[in-house]
Specification:
The chain is mainly α. The chain has two domains: 5-207, Hypothetical protein af1432 (Orthogonal Bundle), CATH 1.10.3210.10; 211-420, Hypothetical protein af1432 (Orthogonal Bundle), CATH 1.10.3210. It has helices at residues 9-21, 30-44, 49-60, 69-74, 84-94, 101-108, 129-143, 154-164, 171-181, 184-191, 195-202, 212-227, 236-250, 255-267, 277-280, 288-295, 297-305, 312-319, 341-356, 367-379, 385-393, 395-420, and strands at residues 5-8, 121-122, 125-126, 207-210. The strands form two sheets. A two-stranded antiparallel sheet has the order 1-4. Strands 2-3 form a two-stranded antiparallel ribbon. A hairpin with a 2-residue loop joins strand 2 (121-122) and strand 3 (125-126). Helix 2 (30-44) runs antiparallel to helix 10 and helix 13 packs across helix 19. The mean pLDDT is 90.
Length: 425
């Protein structure tokens, strides 16, 4: 059994940032810009390295709680005043993973204005300095025009920040920004195609070494980010995970391989973070353009996990779940010989879960209906017929594993929503 998994946190956060911004070209590099501005301000203030790292982690994920394209576009307005809801959602999504808890706290208050000093506290909670830096950095990034040269914009941006003053920003942070704003490199880095490289060189994020329990916590964090964006998807990944793990046991895989299938189930739809919630929640047939967007999600999953070598097998299991044995799947058009058993198992688990789970707009299929669909896909060389036979022979136990996992996830989602409560109002 593999004792540890090594993950370079920056690599993964950088890829997550890309996925979040791929939802619209207008958002390109927004998270990274906020992270880099925050880092420069924190460095100017000579904050300890550990605090600078926390601020970068928070900056690169600060809008993770903005779940729809419409809301994401609203966050791009300088006067946007309703951000506490998505800030609280971002906090609730991230805080379950120990290495990211401090970043989650910073995200929680990244839309709390200074308000002449009243912004030191919010709902009885003390607002961290890192959050106050994020407020300023976010507004600076929002003022950057993508259709104009950056050095011609600096005076106007400085003027807007000064004009907003301590209604929005802590005065000493404005002073730190104005000190930076006179340096051309500060602005050029923000619009450079090498912004990821600059962030990586500037930040000191160490690799995380995780045992299986910690990796499961990490993958559960990602599962919540993916699924809790909508009641339409709130329990899907947990159902796929439980089904894949159970199928793996029935197929004779060892404990370690079944564990990796479980994790792959949690991560398989990671790329859906790049798909607008409006499409994910659409109950009817998708248009061609919408379906083409949806087809990209497995590609985004693969690219996001690709830099993490220790998750290579898990990545293949999860990212290939829409590949088909005859090569007609997506996004790589792989055939049976290219698909490991774990990928074939997860592909069946995904279809099985999608067919049998209840959705807000329809009930799940019966056993008989599910088997008819799976048999057809097996006969047409889409899914592995041998795995489908395992489903047919063990349908009751597989479905029970799915139901138990999804009910636990449903309860977790209810608790998540109750935690949001009135804190986001």
């Amino acid at each position: 059994m593999k004792p540890q998994y090594r993950i370079r946190l920056f690599d993964f956060l950088n890829c997550l940032s890309d996925i979040l911004d791929w939802i619209s070209p207008v958002l390109n590099d927004h998270h990274k810009q906020v992270a880099l501005i925050s880092l420069r301000i924190a460095d100017t203030l000579e904050l300890p390295v550990v605090e600078q790292n926390e601020i970068v982690c928070a900056g690169i994920l600060h809008d993770i709680g903005a779940i729809s394209l419409a809301e994401r576009m609203e966050t791009l307005k300088f006067e946007y005043a309703n951000g506490k809801a998505h800030a609280e959602m971002g906090y609730q999504l991230i805080n379950i993973f120990e290495p990211m808890r401090r970043a989650a706290e910073l995200i929680r208050f990244h839309h709390t204005p200074w308000a002449g000093g009243q912004g030191r506290f919010s709902n009885g909670w003390q607002v961290p300095l890192g959050s106050r830096i994020l407020v300023l950095a976010d507004h600076i990034a929002l003022l950057i025009r993508r259709d104009q040269g950056i050095l011609g914009q600096t005076e106007a941006i400085k003027a807007r920040i000064i004009e907003a003053g301590d209604a929005l920003f802590e005065p000493r942070l404005i002073e730190a920004f104005l000190e930076l704003a006179d340096k051309e490199y500060f602005w050029l880095d923000l619009v450079s195609p090498l912004i990821s490289k600059q962030l990586e060189q500037s930040v000191r994020l160490e690799s995380i070494h995780m045992n299986q329990r910690e990796l499961l916590s990490f993958s559960s964090l990602i599962r919540r980010m993916i699924d809790f964006r909508s009641p339409f998807t709130a329990t899907h990944s947990s159902g796929v995970s439980a089904t894949a793990e159970h199928l793996g046991m029935l197929a004779g895989l060892n404990e370690y391989e079944c564990f990796e299938l479980k994790v792959a189930g949690y991560l398989h739809d990671l790329g859906k973070l790049a798909i607008p919630a409006e499409i994910l929640e659409k109950p009817g047939k998708l248009t061609d353009d919408e379906f083409n967007l949806m087809r990209g999600h497995t590609f985004y999953t693969f690219r996001a996990l690709e830099p993490i070598e220790d998750l290579s097998a898990i990545n293949k299991y999860g990212s290939y779940h829409h590949e088909r044995l005859d090569g007609t799947g997506y996004p790589f058009r792989l055939k049976r010989k290219d698909l490991p058993l774990g990928s074939r198992l997860l592909a069946v688990a995904d279809v099985f879960t999608a067919l049998t789970e209840d959705r807000p707009y329809r009930k799940g299929m019966s056993n008989e209906q599910t088997i008819i669909v799976l048999d057809k896909m097996g006969a047409n060389n889409k899914l592995d017929p041998e795995i489908i036979e395992l489903v047919k022979a063990n349908h009751e136990s597989i479905n029970q594993a799915r139901i138990i996992a999804q009910e636990a996830s449903r309860e977790e989602y209810r608790n998540f929503l109750s935690q949001l409560g009135n804190l986001a109002d």
